[in-house]
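sry for the spam today, last one i promise. struct tokens for design, 424 residues
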């Protein structure tokens, strides 16, 4: 395959589209973003709020702390913060500039304003609809399929903006072009100046929150617990990634660079690679190319699964991270392809039961398994076609996992949501 046949422009676009900053768990932040936009359209504080969301939004917002709210959790808190103090122009950093005074106003708003949350009967796994009412005036904003994809804005009965909700990844570069072989060829040949700013920001943001997670006391302190056991390189890779999630899931007011709509996926994809590169004194160019591999492999695996599902996204992200480590070690197609297959064979059963403190532990587990998958192949061991979901060829195995997560686990997802909504 010549360089001219590589989808260079598209791959660069995918990196720029997927590696964007977000403060806080992206589902509550998407609610805050929609709410802030609806407030802007209404032009005043509402006296009543109606929020309709799909089951996966309920699942991912129920237990996580919303940043810059003084510890509020859940859908009403995220929406109230967006309404009272959100800056919708900042999109997934909509809550980044909230003051202490505005936090108090948010709590006051929640105490006196009826906020109704309803389960939406919708074909979209990712769906947020927010209606604000003030006397006879109203506004409505809807986001579907990905976190900033506004598909409808209304003021009273006037439609200000509307677009088709059918395309699954509305407005994004086609991810179906991704494949492991071409990703590696792209990474080996790409002019790094075209992607370096995106990747440098990922290094700065995600390592900063990892270090904060190790310094502070967040959630179950998975990262610190791991480092207290031992501090060899592979343990540090797991611990730093977990610590970043410890902080992020528990109200830390620092942004992360996400991947495929998820901060935990962005953390899992990048932090282990950065820690490994620093531990083995890899040069900076190698680190940047390894992060290209890691992010594109994660995005490739997630494309067949979807933004939200019953399948824990950090499994895909850990495959990306191990691919980046393999690249630093000099591995190319055979090593990376077998590492991905080995990791998927081991860890594809981890479920997503919402955003919360235990996500950090799932990250540690997934990274550990993906690193084992790499070591296995280097030692001459692998899983073979016909063993479970493993098929001949890495792309066929990835396709099988996508079918499992998107189709086979749909009923599992509904049952997880039902159980979570009945459990307080």
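last one done:
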């Amino acid at each position: 395959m010549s360089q001219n046949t590589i989808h260079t422009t598209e791959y660069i676009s995918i990196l720029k589209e997927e590696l964007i900053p977000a403060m806080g768990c992206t589902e509550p932040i998407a609610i805050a973003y929609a709410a802030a936009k609806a407030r802007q359209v209404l032009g005043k504080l509402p006296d009543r709020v109606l929020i309709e969301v799909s089951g996966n939004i309920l699942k991912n917002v129920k237990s996580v702390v919303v940043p810059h709210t003084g510890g509020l959790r859940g859908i009403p808190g995220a929406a109230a913060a967006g309404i009272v103090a959100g800056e919708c122009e900042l999109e997934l950093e909509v809550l980044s500039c909230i003051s202490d005074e505005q936090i108090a106003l948010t709590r006051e708003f929640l105490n006196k304003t009826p906020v109704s949350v309803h389960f939406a009967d919708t074909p979209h796994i990712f769906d947020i609809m927010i209606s604000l009412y003030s006397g006879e005036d109203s506004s409505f904003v809807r986001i579907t399929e990905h976190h900033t994809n506004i598909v409808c804005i209304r003021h009273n009965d006037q439609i200000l903006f509307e677009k088709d909700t059918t395309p699954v990844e509305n407005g994004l570069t086609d991810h179906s072009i991704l494949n492991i072989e071409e990703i590696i060829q792209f990474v080996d040949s790409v002019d790094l100046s075209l992607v370096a700013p995106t990747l440098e920001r990922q290094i700065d943001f995600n390592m900063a929150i990892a270090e904060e997670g190790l310094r502070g006391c967040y959630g179950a302190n998975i990262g610190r617990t791991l480092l207290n056991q031992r501090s060899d390189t592979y343990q540090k890779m797991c611990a730093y990634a977990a610590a970043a999630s410890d902080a992020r899931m528990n109200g830390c007011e620092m942004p992360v660079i996400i991947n495929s709509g998820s901060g935990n996926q962005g953390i899992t994809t990048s932090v282990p690679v950065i820690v490994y590169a620093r531990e083995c004194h890899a040069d900076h160019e190698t680190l940047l190319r390894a992060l290209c591999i890691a992010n594109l492999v994660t995005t490739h695996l997630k494309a067949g699964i979807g933004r939200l599902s019953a399948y824990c996204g950090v499994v895909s992200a850990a495959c990306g991270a191990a691919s980046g480590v393999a690249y630093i070690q000099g591995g190319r197609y055979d090593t990376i392809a077998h590492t991905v297959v080995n990791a998927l064979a081991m860890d594809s059963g981890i479920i997503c039961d919402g955003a919360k403190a235990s996500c950090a532990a799932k990250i540690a587990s997934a990274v550990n398994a993906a690193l084992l998958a790499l070591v296995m192949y280097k030692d001459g061991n692998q899983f073979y076609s016909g063993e479970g979901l493993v098929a001949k060829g890495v792309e066929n195995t990835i396709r099988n996992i996508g079918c499992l997560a998107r189709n086979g686990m749909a009923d599992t997802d509904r049952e997880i949501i039902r159980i979570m909504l009945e459990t307080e």
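The radius of gyration is 21 Å. ok im logging off now
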